Amino acid sequence: MVREFDLFRELTETSGAPGYEDRIRTVVRREFEGVVDVVRTDAMGNVVGTVEGRRDPEYEVAVAAHMDEIGFMVRHVTDDGFLQVDPLGGWDPRVLRAQRVTVHAADGDRPGVIGSPPPHTLDEEDLEAEDAVEDVYIDMGIDPAAVTDQVATGDLVTVDQRTERVGSTITGKAIDNRVSLYAMLQAAKMVDPAVTVHFAATVQEEVGLRGARALGVDLDPDLAIAVDTTVANDVPQVGDEADYVTELGEGAAIKLKDSSVITNPKVHRRLRRIAETEELPYQIEVLPSGGTDTGGFQQSAGAKPVGAISVPTRYLHTPTEVVRETDVTAVVDLLAAFLDAEDGENDYTL
């Protein structure tokens, strides 16, 4: 079971589109209080909580989990009072029909819906047309004049969804990547590291790993570990098991590659050894596409050894992402065990 479900729910239900992670940043800073030795925020909005090493403070490890969720930015308000939007992150437009959303206006949040015309009124050409984010219209249910008064170009929009337990899983929006943010915060509360650990809640990952790249200029870690979600395609729609990437219930995923990084072999082998020693369930992740903050750190901080631990997640980048509770716990425990075991003496050079 997830140990602090109320915190998990708060993290996932709180809004925070790329570049506008203010609300989630407040939660992270609150959770760092009394846990880390120093907290700082940079000009991009990355939050870093540092725990000084009790034995070798000069050796530094960075752990990154991004705060942002995919969302939208208002690009136009029509004369009829409907909002048109640009995507912030990788939306699959097929999942956007008939969704409830929250419009984050300057003077407060406003509800809205992404409408979908009923099939009774659509001709064959309309029914066969491919969806596109550019075709999304948000209906706020108020007079056009009121929409113009309340909403402006540049306002943010996020999906409105509750986080709930469903059997042995948890479903909700923004599980990518708030589940990993949760895992990092939990691990920070558990560890007593021999080396200095920087717990970094990063921004703008969904639009190009931007926060991690900027943070890698300020931090100069000897080792970097990212925590993120990964694909779990163990569903009926995917017939070939080779395309599953990971499966729910099989434990933490230890990443070997994605499209942004090939993790250091010595790092991922050590993660496997620790998982086996601690009798923690794990699986190997080979992700054909998609990137994480691991790649961002390696690109900006130079030739650093990097690794990544992932949370297997079904239905990524939809409003109903799903994780298994036992996998979340395995990720927390593996990250904490890895950090506690790091003594600065491991040679990760190849």
Automatic annotation (TrEMBL):
Pfam families: Peptidase_M42. Zn(2+) 1 binds at H66, D176, D228. One of its GO terms (molecular function) is aminopeptidase activity. SUPFAM superfamilies: Aminopeptidase/glucanase lid domain, Zn-dependent exopeptidases. Zn(2+) 2 binds at D176, E206, H317. The keyword Signal does not apply. The keyword Glycoprotein does not apply. This is Peptidase M42 family protein. It comes from Halanaeroarchaeum sulfurireducens. The lineage of its organism: Archaea, Methanobacteriati, Methanobacteriota, Stenosarchaea group, Halobacteria.
